[in-house]
Amino acid sequence: MKEQKNYFLLVLILGALSTISPFSVDMYLPAFPAIATDLRTSISNIQLSLTSYLTGIAIGQLFYGPLLDKFGRKKPLYAGLWIYVVASIGCAFVSTYETLIIMRFVQAIGGCVGMVAAQALVRDLFPVTKIAQTLAMLTLVIAVSPMVAPTIGGYVAAHFHWHWLFILLALICSGIIVSCKWHLPDGAAPDRQISLRPVQVYKKYIEVLKNRQFLTYILVGGIAGAAPFAYIAGSSDVFINIYGLTATQYGWLFAFLSIAMIGATQLNHILLNHFSNRTIVITALGYQLVIGLIIILGVWTEAFNVWVLIGILFIFLTGHGLSVPNAAALSLAPFSKNAGSASAMMGFMRMAIGGLVTALVSVFHNGTAMPMVILMAACILIAGSVLLIHFYITGELRRWIEGLGLQLSAGRGK
Fold first, then answer.
1. Would you indicate the residue range of the signal peptide (predicted)?
2. Which of 16, 51, 220, 320 could join 358 via S-S bond, C-beta 3.0 to 4.6 A?
3. More confident residue, 191 or 237
């Protein structure tokens, strides 16, 4: 019983570390209009603070892997978490949107250590037979965070000042630091032989990027996975300012739409018993593109009320839980070594592309839902195009077309 209790506590701490960044992305979304009003700026400028946060996560992940290996798990972890706490307090007291953008970047550089350290500690602290089970538990904890964070953020934004959102994030992280101090084992010992020379790190990443399958599917997964970032960046403005929802209602709406991605992730486990990773990716991208075009048409013609838009967005977002995990599996499949560098590069690409898309939502902001929905559909279209180009280069597209032609000829012969 004691061993089970310790296991649960350890998973809870690792899950908390993993959710620092998702919480930081999602919790302040309902407060976008209030922050824009208070800082006397536009929603599009506040959206750039989300872009800067995602950029910070992308960059930070590339550096923490080598640091955690060279200096052990705890020292870089504590350093990153304290940077996050200080930056969170800084976010609470900014007076201009430019300062908020900068502080959010610093906050991300600190907070992203939680994701990297949690994955490393799973490998350190659990036997091989329990690693998959533990990662599944962490995935579930992370999946729940988009449901909880905006709901909490909606209530805080509605009943308190938006500054308290960042104070709350600082307090949560401080509690995590205390928990790590008293209940988290040290993990792997420091390895002083690991080189932090940029040239050596750079060579590993270049070697990973030279693999065609990795590059193809990391682009497919990263670009398709950026569609929800367009939704995240634009949805608070769309649903609060255009459709008139309150911050609290928006928080519950965000939680509801998160079920689409969580449910699809669970469905993916069942589908993999019957279909290949590649088949699921192709199918998910295909139906997402059709749904994306319907959303654009409906928003453009003003045919959708808020409930219809919510329903069709739910259907669209299920594709994220199907295409992205399978694209990730296909991208990492070629690596028996350098898997750590490949994982770090995958995280970097996802967040970098996501950050770019959120910036585009800000750039094209025009007071309508069109920039958000067009960029969502565009992500799927580009991801599908990358996959088609890959199939063309490798000859798979020609073989597929020839096979289809033979099937049609056989059908007519009958």
1. none
2. 51
3. 237
pLDDT tens-digit map of 151-201: 888 888 888 889 999 999 999 999 999 999 988 888 777 777 776 777 777
Q: Enter the CATH code of domain 197-414.
A: 1.20.1250.20
Of the chain, the end-to-end C-alpha distance in Å amounts to: 66
Q: Give 41's DSSP letter.
A: -
CA dist 286 → 152, 202, 325, 330, 413 (Å): 35, 35, 16, 18, 30
Number of residues that make up the chain: 414
CATH topology for the 1-184 domain: Growth Hormone; Chain: A; (1.20.1250)
CA distance 202 to 187: 26
- Cα 257 to Cα 9, 153, 269, 386, distances in angstroms: 29, 16, 20, 27
Report yes or no on whether pTM surpasses 0.85: no
pLDDT band at 246 (very low <50, low <70, confident <90, very high): confident
Contact 238, 29 (CB under 8 A): no
